[in-house]
Amino acid sequence: MSWDVIGQQLWNGLLNGSIYVIFAAGLSLVFGVMRVINMAHGELTMLGAMLLFTVTDLVGLAYFPGAALVVLVMALAGFLVNRVTVRPFLGHSELVVILSTVALSFVLLNGSLVVWGSGPKGVEKPFNEIVQVGGVYITTAGLLLVGVCFAAVMGLYLMLTHTKLGKKTRATGQNLLGARLIGINTTAIYDTTLIVASGLAALAGVLIVLVSSATPNLGQPLLITGFAVVIVAGMGNVAGAVAVGLFMGVTEALFGQFVSTYYRQGYLYVVMIIVLLLRPQGLFGRK
Amino acid sequence: MAILETSGLTRMFGGLSAVDRLDLSVEEGEIRGLIGPNGSGKTTALNLITGYLKPSRGAVTYRGSEVTGRQPHDLARMGLVRTFQITTLFENLTVRDNVLHGSHLNNPTSLMGAMRRSGRYRRQSAEMEDRVRELLAFVGLGERIDAVARDLSAGEHRYLEIAIALAAGPRMLLLDEPATGLNPEEAAFLMNLIRTLRSQGVTVLLVEHNMRLITNICTRITVLNFGAKIAEGTPEEIVDNPDVITAYLGKRRGA
Amino acid sequence: MRLTVPAGWWLGGALLVVAALTPLFVFTNTYNRGLLVLIIIYAVAGLSLDYIMGEMGQFSFGHAAFWGFGAYVSAKLALDLGISPWIGFLAAPVAAGLVGLLIGYIALRRTRGLELAIVTLGFGVLAWTVALRWRPVTGGPSGLRQVPPPSLFGWEIRSELAYFYFSLLLLLGIVFLLSRLRTSRFGRGVRSIHENEDLAKSVGVAATKYYVLAFSFACALVGFSGALYAHHFRFVNPNLLGLDYMFIFLIVVLVGGRGTLWGPVLGSAIFVLVSEWLRALQEYRFVIFGVVLLLVVLFMPIGVFPALQNVARRMRGGKDAGGDVTPGGQDPVLEPGGAG
Predict the structure, then answer these.
(1) What total number of domains does chain C contain?
(2) How far is CA C290 from CA A100, A101, A104, A282, C248, in A?
(3) Nearest CA distance, C177 vs chain A (angstrom)
(4) C290 touches chain A (CB under 8 A)
(5) pTM to 2 decimals?
């Protein structure tokens, strides 16, 4: 095997892995803070991509203002996601909340299929030079993707650890009742959590179109990959999700190159199942 | 002969030992008290004995065979049955169904019998129903048989818990602070129940932090502090033991 | 919760009589009779999913995978080996039950509730991937066609009417079996784990073993439903293992009523008929179903069947019994295993 091929796959894996990282970070954040599995997270990313297509291709905005607008709008939509599909069901069992988000994902997916059709849509990239490093081809759009992902993850990390809001958020995740008792407005924290998560999901969506195209069907596979990452990392562990997301992206690409393209996605589930067998709380989970 | 023995039983949480080299030997027919201040490792010890936690070190022997790390349901089958510190019931079921579901080990019906509603199944079910009524009458819940468990009072909760445990047919019963939340009359009724059980041949290990309650009824008492055994003896010996007074009673008086 | 048997069976019986008569008087053409068969197939799948949700108090996102698996098993046996669909109807649940046993053993030893939901989702998608990719065996994306219908004494049951009565009989048998299973030692054991796993263990219920067996049983049942589907619609494809059918089974259970025997049967009838009624709206159908599911979960969390039961009871001057999910009530099992 050639080193160039490995290098190319490492780069491809880094691209996918970066997406997995911010996708899984949002998924994990919602679980960690609210103990809610947001089955609609993948469709939020999908909406991010589709809306970007709409504002750039149909409305005529350039990539950057379009992306910023979409992420902003989707973040605000996170508030609605909380108020419509999560909050009304929190008094019920955790299962009911899963089901309401499943229902939302079906509405979003099938609604998008109606609006946009199932065909892939390309989005005009802000720049798209190809740089050759050694034998590896790297696109500038891909570099942008990786850079933005890491900036977003760092931002999330700093927010959670260094701001008052972040500390309140973590306190709420650790002990809801305790957080309420010390006067934290947990309703606001829940709203904020979904706003941030939804924004991250949409960010993943607007970044995905830098390296591939937008389609209403991109949400479901991403959601499942996201779960594989979150489970391997340990549910609710945001930092773990970052490490595992990268690892999964890179090893998945290598697996696709050297073992089987067909079963590429299958690889992630197999890793997930093995981790569950050996360490059900995930690699970075506490027990 | 000892029905239950632990030797060097230890459980670490992080770097701390919640239970530290505990040697315990309970004779058949005893009512043994296991006391200690809050956080002294009583419940952890009970969890280790009944298989709800795996010990870091040490062994548990029950009726002559080593049972360290066995599953709770295996131990229940051997007659080692426990109750929980926080009231634990099948809350959505009626009082009757609570005891009926607790009778798993004494449910002789076969799957095919249940499917066919055979004469045998119906006879066995009627016998189980009789036993459920008997047990509920014994714990004083005969009148509440159709109530839903979560609607019971705190005292009734505790009685029902005991009825459920008895439905499993214990040889040895481990009760984790059964008097918590009871008023003095209810607690007295409970202690009487425990005495009756003993007279029926059930060995009892009673975890409690209320010393006064326990001195009346226990044959022997073991005292834990910081996970380790600091004293053991008859209630009289324990009450007069200076270590116990400083570690336990003294601290409580000062509090 | 004790299902008040009279009200339940009374309503269920009425449902059955209506069902048995409809193809003779109302649904007289072949197409509509096919819908009735579909109702039964989804009802069986719903009943099996409800065994996991209502009786075990757990959730499996991989349930459709077992459904599709059962369909493939029976279809493959008939197509490749010429084995009679009658044997397929037995082989499919056995195979699905065995795989369910294995996966249940892997998943249920350590995970419950939300974790279990995600783990089964992983298994389900893995199975779907395999069905899609393993062309030589599964036929790839287009699946397998020309699956033969069952025949009776050399007589192929192609007629929708015969297939309908055949599967209606089986459905009745399954409901009967499930109702009896509840009061068996096994059924009570499963119920007690649902109610409180720690307590169930303390009275001697081998919780993991019982849950694995119960899970495997539910998988066998849904595998059987899959075989019914394969031999009736005479094709199988990877979508059968996918999330769309999972969503349908969920609607069937939740709309009908979780933890009630007749609920999924009613839920299936409602789903199939409403979706047929919405047929003109084509692609909007699933959007509408999503909204309906949200509304049902929000406003009628106990489902339609228990709601009807309550109405029936009130008419006779009794009290509401409520379903499995009461507003504000909690599902103890959906909290993952207690931390000692």
Answers:
(1) 1
(2) 9, 10, 6, 32, 10
(3) 27
(4) yes
(5) 0.88
Q: Which two tokens stand for residue A263?
A: 């079963």
Query: What amino acid occupies position B153?
Result: S
Rounded CA separation C270/C267 (Å): 5
Contacting residues for C316 by C-beta, under 8 A, at least 6 apart:
none
Of A88, A89, A227, the CB nearest to C122: A227
Which positions in chain C have a beta carbon within 8 angstroms of at least one beta carbon in chain B?
1-2, 177, 180-181, 183-189, 191-192, 195-196, 198-207, 329, 332, 340
Please report whether residue A149 resides in a domain.
yes
Per-residue pLDDT of chain A (287 residues; tens, 9 = 90+): 588 888 999 999 999 999 999 999 999 999 989 988 899 999 999 999 999 999 998 888 999 999 999 999 999 999 999 998 899 888 777 778 888 898 899 899 989 999 999 899 988 888 888 888 888 889 999 999 999 999 999 999 999 999 999 999 999 988 888 899 888 999 999 999 999 999 999 999 999 999 999 999 999 889 988 988 988 888 778 888 899 999 999 999 999 888 887 777 788 888 887 887 777 777 776 54
CATH label, B1-79+170-255, candidates 3.40.630.30, 3.40.50.300, 1.10.3470.10, 3.20.20.140: 3.40.50.300
Residue C17 is inside which H or E element, if any?
helix C5-25
β B57-62/B2-13 pair status: antiparallel
| Whole-number Å distance between alpha carbons of A173 and A156 | 15
Q: What is the ipTM of this complex?
A: 0.93
Contact C200 B77 (CB under 8 A): no
